Inverse folding.
């Protein structure tokens, strides 16, 4: 059991009017008396609990009403942290010891050891890809320490041509996949690097030379994972079930949904059309590209190729 779990248990017994003492804590969690006294001191001195010892009852109590431990009255915040933990697990990071510890502690805080997060939450992503534990830790360390990162991008670590020197800017999760937004010295520009494709990562001693400005819209300026300058604004007519679904969906902060008779027009800023074409095709005949013409032709070519393949 962690210190946090022991403190929450001790706190619960105080609230229940049981007047617990160091011996109770020591026996319950099979820890030394010295460790039990340190836990109680932590509760009093670090968490500012209004602890007092009752000599007659040989136990602790709170001399003030209303004391709460961190997160105790924030179930929605705990649930949010649990969702982040589940997201990490679904993305293939559940073997990281930090993730396992977080899951254990959250379960203890939310349920007092009577249940687990998995009993009330199920998150599911399709097409997830496992990220190397070592790579993920090095990426996080480089972001926290603001030092440059050397990575081998691709599945062949011996291919020195894939080596990149990066200034890490931000960790990105998109549709269950993890990416690193970084300044790439090889390309001389910001790039997104798919963490599942990084086969090796090493911290460098040099501090980063580039940082992300607060008003930088590289990640939010266009639709989809393919970033860059806006190439065009796509206009897509949606009908039937597609219209009913998209009417309540959020595809991009700058999207515009224009209501028509029984259809809607969806307007989106786009840098690269590859992901958008896949989204359009998934709706079948309930989606039609209105503009621009080159996007309409690209979708038409894909449809014709599919027809030929199935003929």
């Amino acid at each position: 059991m962690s210190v946090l779990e022991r403190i929450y248990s001790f706190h619960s017994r105080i609230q229940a009017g049981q007047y617990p003492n160091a011996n109770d804590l020591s026996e319950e969690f099979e820890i030394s008396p010295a460790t039990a006294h340190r836990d109680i001191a932590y509760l009093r001195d670090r968490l500012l609990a209004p602890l007092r010892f009752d000599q007659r009852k040989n136990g602790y109590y709170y001399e003030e009403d209303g004391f709460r431990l961190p997160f105790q009255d924030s179930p929605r915040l705990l649930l949010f942290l649990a969702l982040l933990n589940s997201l990490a697990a679904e993305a293939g990071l559940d073997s990281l010891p930090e993730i396992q510890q977080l899951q254990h502690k959250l379960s203890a805080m939310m349920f007092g050891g009577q249940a687990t997060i998995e009993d009330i939450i199920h998150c599911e992503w399709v097409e997830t890809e496992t990220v190397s534990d070592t790579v993920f830790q090095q990426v996080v360390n480089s972001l926290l320490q603001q030092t440059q990162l050397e990575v081998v991008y691709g599945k062949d670590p011996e291919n020195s041509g894939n080596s990149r020197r990066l200034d890490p800017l931000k960790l990105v999760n998109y549709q269950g996949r993890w990416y690193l937004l970084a300044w790439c010295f090889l390309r001389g520009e910001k790039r997104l690097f798919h963490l599942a494709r990084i086969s090796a990562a090493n911290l460098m001693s040099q501090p980063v030379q580039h940082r992300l400005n607060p008003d930088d819209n590289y990640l939010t300026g266009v639709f989809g994972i393919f970033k860059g300058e806006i190439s065009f604004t796509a206009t897509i007519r949606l009908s039937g079930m597609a219209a009913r679904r998209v009417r309540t969906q959020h595809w991009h902060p700058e999207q515009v949904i224009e209501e028509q008779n029984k259809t809607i027009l969806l307007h989106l800023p786009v840098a690269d059309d590859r992901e958008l074409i896949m989204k359009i095709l998934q709706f079948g005949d309930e989606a039609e590209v209105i503009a621009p013409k080159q996007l309409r032709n690209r979708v038409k070519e894909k449809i014709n190729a599919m027809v030929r393949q199935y003929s």
About this structure: The domain at 133-207 is CATH 2.30.30 (SH3 type barrels.).
